[in-house]
Amino acid sequence: MSDTRVAVVVPVYGNEDTLPELVRRLAAALDGRRWRLRVVVDASPDASLVVARRLAAADPRIAVTALDSNVGQHRALARGLADEPGAAAWVCLDADLQDPPEAVPALVDRLAEGDVGAVFAGRRGMYESRGRTLTGRLHRAALARLTGLPADAGAFVVMGPAARSAVIAMGGPSIVAAIGAAGVTVASVPVERHRRPSGRSAWTSTARVRQSAATLVWAATAGRGLAAAAQVPTGPGRVGTASQRCTSVSE
Question: What is the pLDDT of residue 235?
Fold first, then answer.
C-alpha cells in the first residue's frame, strides 16, 4: 500500500446533500493512508458551508475554505491546491459523486510509480445526457489536440508537485489545460463515472460553452507563454512534444 501523503481538494457548489456521503466513501477508500480533505465552498447558495464546517468539526483531517464570491470549479480547485501545501499527491474530485471516491487509491498508486507527473481518471460511461456527453467529448478531443493530453482527461485527476505548481502558477480557466500546457507527463486510467444521485449540474449549457471556448483559446495562446514565463518545475519524464507526453491508457 502506498504511504504517499494525499490531499484531496473538492470544489463545492450546491452539494449539501452529497457531502456527507462523499466524506464517508472517501474515508473508507483511503483507510490506512495518510490523507486530508480540503473542501472549497464556492459561495454556494445552499447549506453546503454549514454541512462542510460540521464535517470538519468532526474530523481533524477535513478543512474548509469558504469563498465570498463564486469563482467557478477550476479556480476553486486551484485555490484549494494552494491551501494544501503539505502533501506529495493532490487529488481533484467533484462533490456530486459522479466521480467515484473508490477510484482514488488506484490513481494515487499509479502516480507513485514515479514515471508520470499526473494521472487522470479517464472518463467512461453514460453519466450525462447524450447531448452533453457528445459536446464534452468534442471539447476534450480539441483540448487533446492542443496540449497532447489524453482525450478522456477531465478534472478528476491526481497530480504531483510539478503539475500542482503549474495549476497554481498559471491561473488559467482550466486545471486540465494548465497541466497540459506545462508539459508534465501524464497517464490516464479508465474510471466509470456515474449519474448524479441528486440535484442538477451548476453548469448550464451557456456556461459550458463559455468555459470550453475560454479553455481552448487559453490553451492555444496564453497557456504556452505562461508555462514558460512561470518556469514551472518539470515532473518525471517531461519531454518536448505533445505526442510524447501522454503514456498509453491502460484498460
Answer: 47
